[in-house]
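Amino acid chain
________________
===
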Amino acid sequence: MSNTNLSLCLLENEIQVYKSQNQIDWSIIPIKGEDTFIHHNDQSNIKAVLDEVNKYLNDDGLAFVDVSILYTNSAWLNETIIQLHAFKNTSFQILNFYNLVDYVCRSLNVKQPDSLSSDWIRQRILPLTNLENSWKEHQKLLDAIQLQGQLKQAQQQQDQSLIETDFAKKLADLQQERQKLQIELQQIQQQLVSVQRPNLENLLSFLPSIFKNFWNTVRPDELVNIVGLLDVPQVSSPFHNPSIAAVRTKKRQFLILEESEQQKIIGFCQQLKQQYDLHLHLEFQPIIGALD
C-alpha cells in the first residue's frame, strides 16, 4: 500500500480532490486543468474525476492509495464506492463534510466562513481525516492552529501599538513645530507692522495739520495705543489748532518726504478716520484724498 492519501470532497456544486503524503500537508489535484470541478449534480462525473486522478497518480494509481470520501449529499456515496471498486480500491473511509466543519468551528470558537476556500479546507478540515490519530491528537492540532492565530493576532496588536505610538510621537513633534512656526509668524507680523508703521515723530508733526482740531478728537495716549507704542508723547495742553500758515508749511514739508513715508502716513490717516470723527484741512485734501 502506498503512503499516498487522497481526500475526495463531494460538495454541493463541485468536486475537489486533495493529495497528501503525511495527512497534514495537502495539495489540490487539478481536474481538467481546474482546481474545482463543477459536477452539475450529475453523478456520472464521479467516474470522469476518478479517471483523471488515476492518471495523475501514475504508478500509485487509485488501487494503492487510502481515500477519504467527504460528502455533503449521501445520495452520491453509492456511485462513488462503485467507481472506487472499479479501480480496485477498497481502502476508503466515509466522513460527513459538514460534521468536520462544525467540529473545527466549535473547537476554534470561530464562525463558519460564508465561502470555504481550498486553503481553509486544506489547513483545517483535511488533517482530521487521519484515522490513525486519535481525536485527542486532532484537538492538539486544532489547538496549535488556534495558538498560531492568537500569536498572529498578538503580533498584529503589537504592530498596531507601535504604529499608534509612532503616530503619537510624530503628531507631538508636528504640534511642537506648529507652535514654533506660529511664534515665528507672530514675530514676522510684528516686524512687518513695525516696518509699515509711520514714524511717530512724523505723526506728531503732521497729524494736527492734516486734521482739524486733531488733539481735541484723538488723545495722545490713544494715538500711541493705535500705533503700538508704550511711551505717551508730551503734548501741551490746552491744544491749539495750527494757523493756516503753519498748515501750509507742514504741507510743503510733507511733500518733500519720501514717497514711502507719505503713503504710510496717508494709510494711517485712513485708519484713524474709520475710528474717529476727523475732518481734513482743505490744504491736505488734494494730497490725502477723500477719506469718507
